[in-house]
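The instructor's notes for this session suggest beginning with a concrete chain rather than abstract definitions. Hand out the sequence below and ask the class to guess, before any prediction is shown, which regions might be ordered.
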Amino acid sequence: MVAAGTLAPAVAPLDPVEQSVIDRLAPPFFMEGGTREHLLGTDHLGRDVLSRLIYGARVALIVGVTTVTVSGLVGLGIGLVAGYFGGWADTAFMRLLDIQLSMPFMLLALTIIGILGPSLRNIVIVLALTGWVVYARIVRAEILSLRTREFVVACRSLGGSNARIIVQHLLPNVRSSVLVVSTIEVARMMLLESALSFLGLGVRPPTPSWGAMLADGRIYLASAWWLPTLPGLAISVTVLAVNTVGDGLRDYLDPELEV
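After discussion, reveal the predicted structure:
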């Protein structure tokens, strides 16, 4: 999927936004009436489904990776500060986290996108605003147990600054947990992006998006089953692949799981 999205201009057989009314609702090549010009058929506007699936991978991966990077850095910073310093900083950040968790995601998404308008950038903003809490909670919990360990106390006794303790001793110990969570969160962000695109709150047409393709094709389920089925399969396979990678990273990086 990463290769397909990155090399989309080279591997996509046709222009994903080019319309051809004559070829609309053409079936895949293995069905009666299908042609090898459109291997997976065409949609209701005559656009090539395979090309749109390949370019749709770009949107899903860009949203997933960018959102996880932004929300991960924010959540990591908040978790480190709240867990290490405690006191008013911990209280303030945890109350902010509670407020964030109390807000329904769809209500927040509708509000922000309704004000800013649907676009790829605004989707990333919405998902980043809701995704940082996962990292903050995990990092804070680990820092609370690490800050009283012997190597941290020894570094502090030898005159180590707070910045040195956090960067050189605490951060390396939470890095594996953040990496594993980030990998799994990529899959969740892809699903949320598809859900927003399905509701018409995603990227603007005619940019290909799996969620938008699923929404456009649902009314043709009886007559052109490939329109909603193929983007649904693309979402499912990609999310499954990312989750499998996340599970593998967890098993590889967590020494407690070694037998």
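Then share the key points. The first helix runs from residue 2 to 6. The radius of gyration is 23 Å.
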